[in-house]
Amino acid sequence: MKIFPVIMAGGSGTRFWPLSRRDRPKQFLALVGDLPMLAATVRRLPPLARPADTYVVCGPAHAAAARKLLRDLPAANFVVEPCARNTAPCVGLAALHVAAREKRGIVAMLPADHHVARPEAFREAVAAAARLAEAGAIATIGIRPHAPETGYGYLKVGARLPGKGKAASHAHKVERFVEKPDVVTAARYLADGSYLWNSGIFVFRADVILEEIRRAMPVLGEQLSVIQASLGTPSHRRVLARVFPDCPSISIDYGVMEKSQRIVVVPADFGWSDVGSFAALPEVRETDHLGNVAEGDALVIDGRNNVVLANGKRPVAVVGIDDAVVVDAGDAVLVVRRDRAQDVRKVVEELARRGREEVL
How many domains would you assign to the chain? Predict the structure, then answer.
């Protein structure tokens, strides 16, 4: 069974400013370990999938950097979106490219900027999802929650799938998708035991997802048909540049998955984190005995649960402070409470409003 991984690498990563910038978003940062997150995502795929069958979808501003970083991938496997239109058009465009090679090719849609602590368990979960996808299901991977996390969406698990196969025996119908909850609701989900974190990983046949897009989003389906007719022709770039910007900007979850009757979930636990902000770094990086993450010329005295990243050319010291994030990128400094780390994007928005392009 051949699997075509498609890595979605189009995010801007504004919650990691000032380390992330327009020309170096989150997926190009080595936030966990020595490899940029995009490279780590590709590296964990073999032997489940080959580089020759792995695709990356990104925007024009990052295409050259992605190609340079991932030299083992064929040049034709970099799918460049003319502009950002969220994940539904991204998934549809990627499915067209896989379908051009194999109409019923199995696609594994993977975010470029997630961390996986146990790659072998990750590959086993994707393989189980692929076996279900081969039979026509749209399979997602749900992460067994270990905390009342408010930064993730959830899946409500439904009935166990019938069948004797290994994949079916561990998989369930998805009863519904659930938005990011408040802490009280998240605690209730955790206690209930029938909710999983939504990893954003989906596995499906190319023909199945294109059919579901046409059913749930007929306008996008027509636009993809126009683009599909141009694949492999000299007019493809021109057609893509004309049609794609008019595609509806909506996530695949909202646009298709929440309306589909084919969704099933494979529960898994492979040390997953979406590394959604600086506050998540203590979960995926080594900490000292007081829970601090300190990188570079950073020093924490009498403080707990801090994240201090000194990426500039000067020492950064934090004294007598708990639960703070301090980041020195050389040309910009961020100081924020850990519980407000999701709001870093507001800094980027304000700097843009002020015309401070040099630090964006």
Answer: 2
